[in-house]
């Protein structure tokens, strides 16, 4: 098992270099010269040229990337063009906010979605089933920023229950968590329902019932553990989507997290910071996927047998 | 000497109502089993055998299954009116079922011993340690080393899984055991072992058994009484000697004729012509008439009445009346 985890973590290294190279190339072909953006419209061509040399932007893209990659190998993520602070410092300061946001969104999504999916499956074709699948459809269709704005208007502006911005207390994460988690909740609920429906038709469910086990226990003890595998898969993928969604959510709710940092950095052509944020997201996504795979082994002994 | 039967099914009618039509799975099934007796329910695939077994447990999938008519008494208790709670206390304790396919009948993410121990925990006031101890005993009884109990079903072979399923069914020490083709999924060599084991266990606990099978060899080996089922209705019923030596119904005869002749291995098999009728569109009259070698004009028009040869042996066939059924001779066996 430990060997497997180590192997997976080592795989992460080439992935990180691939991702940074890709982003590097995209940023270099994107219009907008960082030096020009930083110095502003009125800057003289000489000043811009000087800054370009200073930042190393006059070298070929691959040379620039090699310089970045060797720095990365030494644990150096470079300096922000804008603030001149080390990128690592800027990012570390913002990780807790994004982490709290993603965590609250995941919790809200999972805690609502799994019971909803189970009930919808057990009560298939009833009003409850139809209603919960309608909610799930809404969740998949409603854009995060719109939902975020609506929540702000209702709960923050009208009712005043929650703050409209900032990350001061746990209360600040409820609305963003709901806005961000709603979409994932919908996906997870749908997959839980469909895998549950599949599982409750299996022979071993009949076997469990033939033992005289009450139906409720059959569902929780026999059906649910078997239905969880697809649910875990989707939840893992959704956490990736949540990171992407944090960009929107943090903007709408003015949360000082990585999502907002990446947006600001892209606009300011602050390439080292963009790369740093992407690195954090990539590592986060990979680690979540590793955890998901480990969770499979915990849930399903047949998968565990393959990991040795 | 007639005791109170452990199982009595009267005129059971079950339909599966699907979008494609109504499947008439059982059309008035009558069956009665005495304590300790083994009753064979023989018929082709799709004749309604498994539906009958599930009906006794009140586990016919609903939807689409609907019990339209009939009564089932299990140890004197009326299954049809029993509440969920009453059924739960009966299942696994008064009656349990060995399912057809051991590969899919066990929960893949639960250890074998946990799955068996559940039976004890559900029906007895017992500590976890004691239920595990009893589980290990019953595993040994069916020929599985107790230390393998903490393994998962995928680590077991098909034969061993079936032993686990049997152990699970026997754990509650039921008065009636429904065995739904318990050996069909197994290799022939393992079949004999499993069958022998079931017979021993049955004798040991004096359990009544409903043996659902299409294999007349199994019937000859373990059954006291036999019901031949065709299109959801019993067409011939009697004790083992009645059915094997005084065969009356052409369908039963056809089943015997389609067995390979071991004495003359070059002889061609004589299968029953045609196919099992579509249960959503059964033939009129006697449902067997399109395939019957002895078909008469009346067969397609009128459902045959039940004709008794003696108190235990009856057929539903127009070939017979009260007199000629005693003599036999209508059917000549090769």
What does this protein structure show overall?
The complex is a heterodimer of chains A (308) and B (334). The model of chain A has no long low-confidence stretch (mean pLDDT 88). In chain A, 78% of the residues lie in helices and 0% in strands. The radius of gyration of chain A is 24 Å and the shape is globular. By secondary structure, chain A is mainly alpha-helical. Chain A has one domain: MetI-like fold. Chain A is built from 13 helices and no strands. Chain B has 334 residues and is α/β, with parallel strands linked by helices. Helix content of chain B is 31%, strand content 23%. Chain B contains 11 helices and 12 strands. An 8-stranded mixed β-sheet of chain B has the order 6-7-8-3-9-10-12-11, sandwiched between helices. Chain B has a 4-stranded antiparallel β-sheet with strand order 2-1-4-5, with helices on one face. In chain B, a hairpin with a 2-residue loop joins strand 9 and strand 10. In chain B, helix 4 runs parallel beside helix 6, helix 5 crosses helix 6 and helix 6 packs parallel to helix 7. The longest helix of chain B has 18 residues. Chain B is globular. The mean pLDDT of chain B is 87. Chains A and B meet through helix 9 and helix 10 of A and helix 2, helix 4 and helix 6 of B.
Task: Provide a quick synopsis of the model.
The complex is a heterodimer of chains A (308) and B (334). Chain A has 308 residues and is mainly α.
Which keywords apply here?
heterodimer, A: 308 residues, mainly alpha, MetI-like fold, 13 helices, B: 334 residues, alpha/beta, 8-stranded mixed β-sheet, 4-stranded antiparallel β-sheet, 11 helices, 23% strand, globular
The H-and-E topology of chain B, N to C, reads as EEEHEEHEHHHHEHEHEEHHEEH
Number of domains of chain A: 1
Low-confidence stretches of chain B: none
Structural class of chain B: alpha/beta
Radius of gyration of chain B: 21 Å
Strand order of the largest sheet of chain B: 6-7-8-3-9-10-12-11
Helix content of chain A: over 70%
Whole-number mean pLDDT of chain B: 87
Counting DSSP H or I runs of 4 or more residues, the number of helices of chain B is 11
Greatest interface by residues involved: A-B, 22 and 35 residues
Which geometry of chain A do the CA atoms define? globular
Q: Could you give the distance between the termini of chain B?
A: 36 Å
Shape-level CATH architecture of chain A: Orthogonal Bundle
Q: What proportion strand of chain A?
A: under 5%
Number of strand segments of chain B: 12
How far apart the termini of chain A lie comes to 6 Å
Strand fraction of chain B:
15-25%
Number of DSSP-assigned strands of chain A: 0
CATH class of chain A: Mainly Alpha
């Amino acid at each position: 098992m430990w060997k497997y985890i180590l192997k997976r973590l080592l795989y992460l290294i080439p992935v990180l270099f691939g991702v940074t190279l890709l982003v590097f190339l995209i940023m270099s072909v994107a219009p907008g010269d960082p030096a020009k953006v930083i110095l502003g419209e009125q800057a003289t061509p000489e000043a811009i040229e000087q800054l370009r040399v200073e930042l190393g932007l006059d070298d070929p893209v691959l040379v620039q990337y090699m310089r970045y990659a060797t720095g990365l190998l030494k644990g150096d993520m470079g300096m922000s063009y804008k603030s001149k602070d080390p990128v690592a410092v800027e990012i570390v300061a913002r990780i807790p906010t994004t982490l709290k946001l993603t965590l609250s969104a995941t919790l809200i999504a999972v805690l609502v979605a799994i019971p909803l999916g189970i009930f919808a499956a057990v009560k298939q074709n009833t009003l409850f089933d139809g209603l919960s699948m309608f909610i799930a459809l809404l969740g998949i269709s409603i854009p995060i920023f719109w939902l975020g704005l609506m929540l702000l208007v209702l709960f923050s502006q009208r009712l005043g229950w929650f703050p409209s911005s900032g990350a001061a207390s746990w209360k600040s994460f409820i609305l963003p968590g709901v806005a961000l988690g709603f979409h994932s909740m919908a996906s997870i609920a749908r997959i839980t329902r469909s895998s549950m429906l599949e599982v409750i038709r299996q022979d071993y469910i009949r076997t469990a019932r033939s033992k005289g086990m009450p139906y409720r226990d059959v569902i929780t003890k026999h059906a649910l553990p078997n239905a969880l595998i697809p649910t875990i898969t989707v939840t893992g993928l959704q956490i990736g989507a949540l990171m992407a969604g944090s960009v929107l959510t943090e903007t709408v709710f003015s949360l000082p997290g990585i999502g907002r940092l990446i947006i600001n950095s892209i606009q300011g052509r602050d390439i080292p910071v963009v790369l740093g944020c992407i690195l954090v997201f990539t590592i986060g996504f990979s680690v979540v996927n590793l955890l998901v795979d480990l969770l499979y082994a915990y849930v399903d002994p047949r998968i565990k047998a393959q990991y040795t | 000497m007639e005791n109170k039967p452990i199982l009595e099914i009267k005129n059971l009618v079950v339909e599966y109502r699907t979008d494609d039509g109504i499947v008439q799975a059982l059309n008035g099934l009558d069956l009665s089993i005495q304590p300790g007796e083994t009753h064979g329910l023989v018929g082709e695939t799709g004749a309604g055998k498994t539906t009958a077994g599930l009906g006794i447990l009140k586990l016919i999938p609903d939807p689409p299954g609907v019990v339209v008519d009939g009564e089932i008494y299990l140890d004197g208790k009326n299954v049809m009116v029993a509440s969920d709670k009453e059924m739960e206390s009966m299942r696994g304790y008064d009656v349990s079922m060995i399912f057809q396919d051991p590969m899919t009948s066990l929960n893949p993410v639960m250890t074998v011993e946990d799955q068996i121990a559940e039976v004890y925990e559900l029906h007895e006031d017992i500590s976890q340690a004691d239920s595990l101890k009893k589980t290990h005993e019953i595993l040994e009884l069916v020929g599985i080393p107790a230390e393998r109990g903490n393994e998962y079903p995928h680590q077991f072979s098909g034969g061993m899984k079936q032993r686990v399923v049997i152990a699970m069914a026997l754990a509650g020490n039921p008065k009636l055991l429904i065995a739904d083709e318990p050996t069909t999924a197994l290799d022939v060599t393992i079949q004999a072992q499993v069958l022998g084991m079931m017979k021993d266990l049955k004798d040991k606990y004096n359990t009544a058994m409903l043996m659902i099978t299409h294999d007349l060899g199994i019937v000859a080996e373990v059954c006291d009484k036999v019901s031949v089922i065709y299109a959801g209705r019993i067409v011939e019923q009697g004790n083992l000697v009645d059915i094997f030596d005084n065969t009356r119904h052409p369908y039963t005869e056809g089943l015997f004729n389609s067995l390979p002749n071991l004495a003359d291995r070059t002889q061609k098999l004589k299968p029953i012509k045609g196919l099992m009728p579509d249960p959503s569109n059964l033939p009129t009259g006697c449902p067997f008439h399109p395939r019957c070698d002895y078909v008469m004009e009346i067969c397609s028009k009128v459902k045959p009445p039940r004709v008794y040869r003696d108190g235990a042996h009856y057929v539903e066939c127009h070939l017979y009346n009260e007199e000629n059924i005693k003599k036999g001779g209508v059917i000549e066996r090769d």
